[in-house]
Design goal:
Immunoglobulin-like, globular, Pectate Lyase C-like, mainly beta, 2 helices, six-stranded mixed β-sheet, six-stranded parallel barrel, 394 residues
């Protein structure tokens, strides 16, 4: 990555924030309070120009689809209650220069389906609730990705994630209460086996400070690993990942990671597998120290604090800029997600290293995306990039 000349680096963040002022912002309010532009999210999406920001006030809203347009949806305690479990939110056909940001939404019995997206998808503070109607299949709780090149999750709660031909980065992701279930029909009962918390097909996933839990099942045949790979790459920095359990004795039934592919695992991550190995023999596993970058919320008038906290003592760089398409730099393990033309060194030193960025209080900065990433070095590991951390101003 070529470093911008000094004047550009000194002014780049001011330039970034100035760009955001040109984005158009609209208010969505189901209660039609003062300043309301639209009563429904779906209506607003159909009417506003590409690249707009929607500020969604508390309330209940209908399902919506985003097709071929960039948009930022910043919600405050907004719920989609009437989903039928077949996809409350659908995202399609983003071009590489477009992005979709969803923040602060709860989908009751709902899922998120994303297909054919070259542009960036950001889900922050999203809850996908799953319900179990009597004698029926569970509804909702699924994030399904198909051919999505840039997906970033932060502080989300799902019940299952599937990814095919996609790239996924998740921080503070919880995948909870996975279990087998039975459906009764007039001719008998069918038991559907439990599914992995995360299933990757021809995909790459990076996880940090995430939790993949399993709700125990009656027999080992009805349990599942935390993560299954099919010709995929996995990188885990920290968090807790649990294999399948049987009750009443809470017995683990196999590795936490199964399938085929490669997995780079940090020793700080916790794998609850009992006497089983962390990963199946068909997964090429490497245990290595990986950099861990954390950031504080990006709020109007506040200060974002970004810290590369591990590995302690390694030389560490904290970089800040606009988000970019992931690129691989020779000599740096893991891709960089910064725009190569608009970024700066925010801090340099031996880990832990902290940088700060003040966010102006002007509401025109709502929806601004600031990308942080760390790179660490020591003589054993060489140069290693952290997971990217995207701050969306809200």
């Amino acid at each position: 990555m070529n470093r911008p000349p000094v004047p550009t680096r000194l002014l780049s963040i001011l330039t970034l924030t100035g760009l955001q002022l040109s984005a158009q912002t609209y208010v969505v309010d189901a209660a039609n309070g003062p300043g309301t532009n639209f009563l429904e999210i779906a209506t607003a999406i159909a009417a506003v120009p590409d690249g707009s920001t929607l500020v969604v006030r508390p309330g209940n809203y209908l399902d919506f689809t985003i097709d071929g347009m960039g948009i930022t949806i910043l919600a405050d305690n907004a719920t989609l209650p009437s989903s039928n479990g077949f996809g409350a939110v659908q995202i399609y056909n983003l071009a590489v220069h477009q992005s979709v940001v969803l923040r602060g939404l709860t989908l009751a019995a709902g899922s998120v389906f994303a297909t054919g997206n070259a542009g960036r998808i950001v889900l922050e503070d999203i809850t996908l609730e799953q319900v179990h109607p009597p004698n029926s299949h569970p509804l909702g709780g699924l994030l399904r990705l198909q051919s999505c090149s840039q997906v970033l999750l932060d502080d989300c709660l799902f019940h299952r994630v599937t990814s095919r031909a996609s790239t996924l980065v998740a921080r503070r992701l919880t995948v909870a209460n996975r279990y087998s279930y039975s459906v009764s029909y007039p001719l008998g009962t069918i038991t559907v086996p439990a599914a992995p918390g995360i299933e990757l097909d021809d995909s790459r996933a990076e996880l940090q400070n995430s939790t993949i839990r399993f709700a125990s099942a009656v027999s080992a045949s009805n349990t599942a690993p935390a993560i299954t790979l099919h010709r995929s790459d996995l990188r885990i920095v920290s968090g807790t990942y649990e294999s399948g359990l049987t009750f009443p004795f809470s017995t683990y039934t196999g590795p936490a990671i199964t399938g085929t592919g490669e997995a780079d695992l940090d020793p700080a991550a916790v794998f609850q597998v009992g006497s089983f190995p962390i990963a199946a023999a068909t997964v090429q596993t490497t245990m290595t120290d990986l950099p861990e970058l954390s950031i504080s919320p990006a709020t109007l008038g506040g200060t974002i604090v970004a810290t590369v906290q591990d590995p302690v003592g390694h030389l560490a760089i904290v970089a800040l800029g606009l988000p970019g398409t992931p690129i691989h730099i020779p000599g740096i393990a893991a891709p960089l997600w910064l725009d190569p033309n608009v970024w700066l060194f925010a801090a340099v030193g031996n880990a832990p290293v902290t940088a700060q960025q003040f966010v102006p209080g002007n509401s025109g900065f709502l929806g601004l995306q600031l990308m942080w990433q760390g790179v660490t070095w020591d003589s054993t590991t060489g140069l290693v990039a952290s997971l990217p951390a995207l701050g969306v101003v809200h």
